[in-house]
């Protein structure tokens, strides 16, 4: 079954990690997915990672959808505007799903450093990449949904509440997009457009696998370094969460909420790629996080 057959999605920040997992899962459900990001073949971003949006788009198509790679720096207004003009032109004005997963803050986060000792330039750039880019993207994407009086906007974040996350600039970025979803939900409600935030648990991304020196085949070995990693989840898990939300005819009831992969797995019954159902919420409670 292809519950999203005929639907059009934009996944901003689809190069790797959650964004790639989300794009592929939407493709599995039959959607046409515009996969955006800064890294393309022959020209990588300053993240200096090998993954590209073309690879993501190829995986979307291989999974059963239609993947369309578009190089976009979502902090540059003109590029974002051009993206949605292209979507409007190519899809007859249709946009059903918009996922904001742009981040780019890992190399900018200085952990165990007080905000007044942290690089201010890095802290401000983090907001530009991870908050301002989301605002710009929604500004140009939401009108396509408003015109058709339907659509789903998902803000990818870290956590479901407003608690401090160990670094002022990181916390500000992650909490800001939760409130962005909440505020957009209020203003979009009259137009039947849903906005919500979604967090993964401990994400077993490509970068995290590299950090621990493991692969997806032997990832459990990293538990010897960090036992919490044994409760990690692949990007496919959050991808399936997004696909489940996008396929739910009652998703509007969740508008304005901050949701999690583990709670949605409980509700919708999807699993991670290996058939497991990691529950970071229960684990964190047991560990006293």
Automatic annotation (TrEMBL):
Gene3D superfamilies: NAD(P)-binding Rossmann-like Domain (3.40.50.720). The lineage of its organism: Bacteria, Bacillati, Bacillota, Bacilli, Bacillales. Transmembrane segments: none annotated. PANTHER family: DEHYDROGENASE/REDUCTASE SDR FAMILY MEMBER 1 (PTHR44147), DEHYDROGENASE_REDUCTASE SDR FAMILY MEMBER 1 (PTHR44147:SF2). SUPFAM superfamilies: NAD(P)-binding Rossmann-fold domains. Pfam families: adh_short. This is SDR family oxidoreductase. It comes from the Bacteria.
């Amino acid at each position: 079954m292809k519950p999203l057959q005929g639907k059009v999605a934009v996944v901003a920040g689809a190069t790797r990690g959650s964004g790639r997992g989300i794009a592929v899962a939407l493709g599995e459900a039959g959607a046409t997915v515009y996969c955006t990001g800064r890294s393309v073949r022959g020209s990588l971003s300053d993240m200096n990672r090998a993954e590209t949006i073309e690879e993501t788009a190829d995986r979307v198509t291989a999974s059963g959808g239609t993947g369309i790679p578009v190089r976009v720096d979502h902090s540059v207004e003109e590029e974002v505007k051009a993206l949605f003009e292209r979507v409007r032109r190519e899809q007859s004005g249709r946009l059903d799903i918009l996922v904001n997963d742009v981040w780019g803050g890992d190399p900018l986060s200085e952990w165990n450093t007080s905000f007044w000792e942290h690089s201010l330039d890095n802290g401000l750039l983090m907001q530009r990449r991870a908050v301002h880019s989301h605002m710009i993207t929604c500004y140009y994407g939401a009108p396509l949904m408003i015109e058709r009086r339907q659509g789903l906007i998902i803000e990818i974040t870290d956590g479901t509440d407003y608690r401090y996350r160990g670094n002022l600039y990181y916390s500000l970025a992650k909490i800001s997009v939760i409130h962005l979803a909440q505020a957009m939900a209020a203003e979009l409600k009259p137009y039947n457009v849903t906005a919500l935030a979604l967090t993964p648990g401990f994400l077993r991304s490509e970068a995290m696998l590299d950090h621990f020196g493991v692969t997806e085949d032997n990832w459990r070995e990293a538990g010897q370094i960090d036992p919490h990693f044994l409760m990690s989840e692949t990007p496919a898990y959050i991808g399936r969460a997004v696909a489940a939300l996008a396929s739910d005819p009652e998703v509007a009831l969740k508008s304005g909420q901050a949701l999690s992969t583990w709670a949605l797995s409980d509700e919708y019954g999807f699993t991670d790629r290996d058939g497991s159902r990691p529950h970071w919420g229960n684990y964190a409670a047991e560990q006293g996080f």
